Amino acid sequence: MSKIKSIAVKDTDNGIRLDRWVRKHFPVIPYGLLQKLVRTGQVRIDGRRVKADQRVSTGEYIRIPPFQIYNNDISKGINQPISDNYRCSQLQNSVIYKDEELLILNKPPGLAVQGGTKVREHLDGYLEALRFNSPERPRLVHRLDKDTSGVLVLARNADASRWLSRAFRNRNTQKLYWAIVVGVPKNNVGTIDNALEKGISNAKEKMKPTQGPNGQKAKTFYRVIRSAVPSVSWLALQPFTGRTHQLRVHAADVLMTPILGDRKYGGTNAILDTNFISNHLHLHSREIKITAPNGRCIEASATLPKHMISTFKYFGFKEEH
């Protein structure tokens, strides 16, 4: 059992999320335990209760309560670096942009960005393999869902992490997603402005559209690029906000065209009854435009994963659009 600790935030950690600060300085604490400690008010900043996504500031004191890690928690490797030569090589080869301040990857589908309960493999565990002789380990500044592929940005130092985290938080980035949806939207182009809130369905937590007072603003621009009537449509999606599962909910519950393979929000309506089409999630982070800390405007695009390439070929869609 550890003892209570009170640690001052240093300049190098100014502006990062509380949960990332704790995981940086106490990597032995499993992700699930960390979330519980914050949720129950045992981890505090200057004596006050906070949320896991609270940004820490230089000079603040973070309280770390006594905690006990059992051997089976450590053996799961939730927060430990992962050694898998194939995956390390795959991620190194997925780098589509690199400079002294940031990396941009084409994240493969099926790889979680961060660890958590029952998550054994995650990008966070492979970041050491993406150091590329940098004096610092790369840092996460935003996320993609586990089964979403495509563009993902990493900071290569603390200053870049603060800059990029602020850029994503303040929506000073432009992101474009491609999706294959089941069906054809009523309109070929439009803007969805429909708030979202957490709900429970079949004992599982899901986001849902709402007009209620607890809803979080969620806004998405969409455009139909091509359709294979009546089966599927290829959509360009541009989120103006960054809510959890925003694109998936807007596609399924507002456009009434669930993303192909999205069983969570589309159920059986998101599955095509054919052996020729993969039923993996067809959502891809295609492009990003972002201003780097040095003022350079960076644009990067990521090629489609194999299962989406196959689907594009089946319906005669051309990726160069």
3D structure, described in words:
The structure is a single chain. The chain is α+β, with helices and mostly antiparallel strands and 321 residues long. The protein folds into three domains: 5-75, Roll (Structural Genomics Hypothetical 15.5 Kd Protein In mrcA-pckA Intergenic Region, Chain A), CATH 3.10.290; 85-170, Pseudouridine synthase (2-Layer Sandwich), CATH 3.30.2350.10; 176-285 and 310-315, Pseudouridine synthase. Helices cover 21% and strands 28% of the residues. It has eight helices and 16 strands. It has helices at 18-25, 31-39, 71-75, 85-93, 158-169, 246-254, 263-266, 306-315; strands spanning 5-8, 44-45, 48-49, 61-64, 95-98, 102-107, 139-140, 149-155, 173-182, 189-193, 196-201, 204-209, 219-228, 232-239, 283-291, 297-301. The strands form three sheets. Strands 5, 6, 7, 8, 9, 10, 13, 14, 15 and 16 form a ten-stranded mixed β-sheet that branches. Strands 1-4-2-3 form a four-stranded antiparallel β-sheet, with no helix packed on it. Strands 11-12 form a two-stranded antiparallel ribbon. The longest helix is centred in the middle third of the chain and has 12 residues, at 158-169. Mean pLDDT is 88; it is low at 69-79.
Mean of residue pLDDT values = 88
Number of strands: 16
- CA radius of gyration: 21 Å
* Secondary-structure element series: EHHEEEHHEEEEHEEEEEEHHEEH
**What's the number of helices?**
8
